[in-house]
Design a protein that fits this description.
By secondary structure, the protein is of the alpha/beta class. The protein is built from 13 helices and 5 strands. The chain is globular.
Length: 288
């Protein structure tokens, strides 16, 4: 039996009573959904019917009559409640057993729908960290880059006002890294200052290329000195912009700045060496 056949065998579609479904606002990475949020969707379902069933997973034990946890389709579920429906078409997934897998599924579905802002994504990532998943495992299971995960871990370390600006769409992924480095090295005032610069750039139709940073990099080309964390982050961001992705250069700079541990760096070097067709092995604890 193929993996697809096995999955199909484990999927069951049924009209499940709403009273048997556990609706957990904290579980959903989009947060709470109110009846007012789904008025138009509820009307559309009344007229056109439900196009896509919700997805639920059986609870390990009934909770106050609830037999299933709502995994995906929180807006559709709420719309059925608004319509005062007794039952809702649902795909019952018995193969999504543990909490981490269920949260990954919920986050993946919302990412595919492009339904989240960066701050909501960051909140969902944090819950996965709390369940013991590493950056690499989260990236692999979501099908995203490790850099994507790292940026979102930075977001929740920034001041709440900056998080609001990020949620509103004022900063892109590269700019979030730059803001974070200013916050870590210059404090909250430096952080607010660079956010203001990026907002001004966007309002005036500029791309926010950080010309001052680039100019400083050029001025320091022939200067030998021990670099600060801020300088490392500046060069890391510049390299990220040039290559449009995270490279071994940025990983080494992140290690030197104390952002990643040695094991993570050696794993990155090992992956880079494999791409280049070079044999490389991480140093053992004994130093072999």
């Amino acid at each position: 039996m193929t993996k697809t056949d096995q999955l199909l065998a484990e999927i069951k579609i049924a009209n499940v009573p709403l009273s048997e479904i556990k609706y957990d606002e904290e579980f959903n990475c989009r947060g709470a959904i109110t009846p007012m949020d789904v008025v138009d969707l509820a009307k559309d379902i009344q007229q056109q019917g439900l196009i896509q069933p919700i997805i639920v997973a059986p609870l390990d034990a009934e909770e106050n009559g609830k037999k299933y946890l709502l995994i995906a389709g929180h807006r559709r579920y709420m719309a059925f409640r608004v319509n005062k429906s007794d039952r809702i078409p649902a795909i019952i997934r018995t193969d999504i057993g543990d909490e981490a897998a269920r949260r990954i599924f919920n986050l993946s579905e919302n990412l595919n729908r492009k339904a989240l802002n960066v701050t909501q994504e960051a909140g969902a990532i944090t819950k996965l960290f709390n369940l013991g998943l590493t950056e690499d495992k989260i990236a692999h299971r979501l099908g995203v880059s490790r850099d994507w995960v790292q940026v979102r871990t930075m977001v929740l370390k920034l001041p709440p006002l900056v998080q609001e600006e990020i949620a509103a769409g004022w900063l892109n992924q590269t700019q979030i890294r730059d803001v974070y480095s200013h916050y870590m090295n210059g404090g909250i005032d430096a952080c607010y200052s660079v956010v203001k610069e990026f907002k001004d750039d966007k309002l005036k139709g500029r791309k926010g290329t950080r010309k001052k940073v680039i100019k400083k990099i050029h001025q320091d080309l022939k200067v030998k000195k021990v670099r600060s964390r801020e300088e490392m982050f500046q060069l890391q961001n510049y390299c990220f912009e040039q290559f449009n992705r995270n490279t071994i250069i940025s990983r080494v700079l992140a290690w030197a700045a104390g952002e990643i541990h040695s094991e993570a760096l050696h794993e990155s070097i090992e992956a880079f060496a494999e791409e280049q067709g070079v044999d490389y092995s991480c140093p053992s604890e004994e130093g072999d």
